[in-house]
């Protein structure tokens, strides 16, 4: 069962979280393998699993009432990889592959071949006001000196430092059974949420307590993160520290797979394409069928369905199943 553990270090401005995605992650891979496109190559599966784990950690960290969308995109064989996490920790993930990925490939080879790769984190509120745009932060897939970043954890640490002025240590790993992550973060000196001010910026890299905890976290190996339970990991790393743990989140309250696609959403997308284009597809193929990239669900629309899509709601007959 997938689980999330939160904890703080008594007397230190440091918090932490540990996530292990098991059934949720396997469901994502199973749905992809069952699709017409087949399973992702192993390095991309690992990257996507790390993104799913990281997305859960970041969503749980900020407690945002909306979707947190983590994306990496660029000019390599992986055109785009996306992990989306809802406030209830429902997670889904997908990727668009346009070329060959080799077993030894890492972030640079998959996404940043010519230096145009980017990482974006989008916060899309559920209660968005008319005209309000989601918040999005974007950073390149290289460090301050232009050096390529080979691991997703390094990319996200750089993002947090650049966009939120917070020291962060992220250890991520994924295989075909588990996607896991450990987050250690220095608490803001003042304020809540993003950009806690100049005083917070002056603390970057200087807090001895955070530096000690981050160093201990960095000794966690990929094998340990994937195979050991949370109790063992936290004891092995921080046995000399005073760690206060909170109730773990599991089952329906914890991380789980869920997709937000629906026939209504697909109908809205088709209306956005316009009647002429949709009817052209209908004439060529006999029906319009849209598949969800995240979960593999198929939504077919025949001629009657398409006709109803473009009839104003007030003109619908009683009992109509028009997509709203």
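^ structure tokens above, recovered residues below v
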């Amino acid at each position: 069962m997938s689980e999330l553990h939160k904890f703080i270090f008594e007397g230190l401005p440091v918090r932490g979280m540990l996530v292990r995605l098991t059934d949720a992650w396997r469901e994502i891979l199973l749905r992809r393998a069952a699709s017409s496109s087949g399973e992702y190559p192993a390095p991309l599966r690992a990257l996507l699993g790390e993104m799913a784990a990281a997305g859960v950690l970041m969503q749980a960290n900020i407690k945002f009432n909306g979707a947190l969308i983590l994306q990496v995109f660029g000019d390599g064989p992986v055109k785009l990889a996306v992990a989306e996490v809802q406030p209830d920790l429902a997670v889904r993930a997908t990727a668009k592959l346009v070329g060959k990925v080799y077993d030894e490939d890492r972030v640079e080879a998959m996404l940043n071949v010519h230096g145009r790769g980017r990482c974006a984190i989008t916060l899309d509120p559920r209660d968005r006001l008319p005209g309000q745009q989601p918040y999005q932060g974007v950073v390149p897939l290289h460090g301050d000196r232009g050096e390529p970043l080979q691991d997703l954890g390094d990319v996200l640490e750089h993002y947090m430092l650049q966009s939120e002025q917070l020291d962060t240590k992220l250890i991520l790993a994924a295989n075909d059974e588990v996607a896991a992550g450990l987050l250690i973060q220095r608490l803001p000196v003042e304020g809540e949420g993003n950009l806690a001010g100049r005083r917070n910026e002056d603390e970057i890299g200087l807090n001895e307590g955070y530096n000690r905890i981050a160093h201990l976290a960095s000794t966690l190996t990929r094998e340990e993160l994937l195979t050991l339970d949370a109790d063992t990991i936290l004891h092995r790393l921080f046995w000399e520290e005073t760690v206060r743990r909170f109730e773990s989140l599991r089952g329906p309250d914890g991380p789980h797979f869920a997709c937000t696609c629906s026939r209504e959403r697909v109908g809205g997308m088709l209306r956005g394409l316009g009647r002429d284009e949709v009817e052209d597809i209908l004439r060529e193929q006999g029906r319009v069928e849209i598949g969800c990239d995240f979960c593999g669900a198929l939504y077919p629309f025949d001629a009657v369905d398409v006709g109803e899509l473009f009839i104003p709601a007030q003109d619908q007959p009683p009992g109509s199943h028009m997509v709203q």
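The CA atoms of residues 25 and 143 lie 29 Å apart.
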